[in-house]
Amino acid sequence: MNVLTKEARDRLWEEVREEFPHDETMQEVHFVRLVHFLQTKDLTPEERVKFFGQSEKADSIS
Q1: Biggest CA pair distance of the chain
Q2: Distance between CA 25 and CA 42 in Å, rounded?
Q3: What is the pLDDT of residue 55?
Q4: Residue 27 and residue 16: Cα distance in Å, rounded?
Q5: How far apart are CA 13 and CA 58, in angstroms?
Q6: pTM for this prediction
Q7: pLDDT, one tens digit for every residue, the chain (62 residues)
Q8: What backbone phi and psi angles, to 5 degrees, belong to 8?
Q9: How far apart are CA 35 and CA 44, in angstroms?
Q10: Could you tell me if 38 and 4 are in contact, meaning their C-beta atoms sit under 8 angstroms apart?
Q11: Helix or strand or coil: residue 29?
Q12: d(C-alpha 34, C-alpha 18), whole Å
């Protein structure tokens, strides 16, 4: 998994604020989508499934 620097995350925020200047919800959705894309772009399909499956397990409440 690729790790994004604070500077890279700041640039992404600037980008999404420009694309959706009056919609905070769309800024957040687009930011997360870009972060996930950049974190997983070099992973195999199996690694990508594992990556997204881990967050599902962390979010579930037993």
Answers
A1: 40
A2: 28
A3: 59
A4: 5
A5: 25
A6: 0.75
A7: 788 999 999 999 999 999 999 999 999 999 999 999 999 999 999 999 998 887 555 554 44
A8: -65, -40
A9: 17
A10: yes
A11: helix
A12: 14
